[in-house]
Design a protein that fits this description.
9 helices; eight-stranded parallel sheet; alpha/beta; single chain; 218 residues
Length: 218
């Protein structure tokens, strides 16, 4: 199957419930252009430098999502064009995004990354840390970032019941925040990758991050 066919098949399976982000890390621009020429314009990168390089080489109507761990000193390189940052895991990072967005007179949409996995290696805030951030005066003073939802990565396991439980827990927290602190301002729930996105969509994901199922494994 071609890249375009893979995208079409995945999008058909998502229906109107969730949007697809094609994860393009380590993939050449030629592959991305194949998807672009088929009408697909939403791409996710893990590393800022790689995203900037591709941004410079590709058409400017592409929606770029930063989905990997983000260091504060890298924010300035993409603040002029990034559509959404999925991996906000500290107030310090949010302050830097706000600062760089202000320089470009932009408001950047961000997701708080919540730690839901049973692994030490994943980044993210605990639920209590997320609440503390969202209710802090420091956060409320930031005018150039907008928290539009949450992101989470399930454990890297074959235990589908565990993965479902982790996604379900994140959706429950999302609903809780909307009902309490966020006054229904959260609209995006980024969860699910090539191996587990069907479960994520069933549990309420609105954004799935799929790479290998589109472009093939590395």
């Amino acid at each position: 199957m071609s890249i375009a066919q893979n995208i079409q098949q995945i999008q058909n399976s998502l229906g109107s419930n969730a949007k697809l982000i094609a994860v393009t890390k380590t993939k050449p621009v030629s592959m991305l252009m194949e998807a672009y020429e088929a009408g697909f314009k939403r791409y996710g990168e893990n590393k800022v430098q790689e995203m900037v390089t591709k941004y410079e080489q590709m058409p400017k109507d592409i929606e770029w999502h930063l989905i990997g761990h983000l260091q504060t000193n890298k924010v300035k390189y993409m603040a002029s064009f990034v559509a959404m940052i999925h991996s906000v895991d500290s107030l310090k990072l949010l302050q830097e995004i706000n600062k760089q967005a202000a320089k470009h007179e932009r408001v950047i949409d961000c997701l708080l990354q919540i730690f839901i996995a049973q692994e030490e290696t994943k980044f993210g805030l605990s639920e209590s840390e997320a609440k503390e951030l969202l209710t802090s005066d420091t956060f409320k003073a930031l005018k150039n970032v907008r928290i539009v939802g949450l992101m989470g990565m399930a454990s890297n396991t074959d235990n589908l019941a565990q993965i479902r439980q982790e996604f379900r827990g994140l959706k429950q927290f999302f609903d809780e925040l909307n009902a309490t602190i966020c006054a229904n301002s959260l609209s995006e729930l980024s969860m699910g990758m090539s191996s587990d996105y069907p479960i994520a969509v069933e549990e309420g994901s609105t954004l799935v991050r799929v790479g290998s199922a589109i472009f093939g494994s590395r």
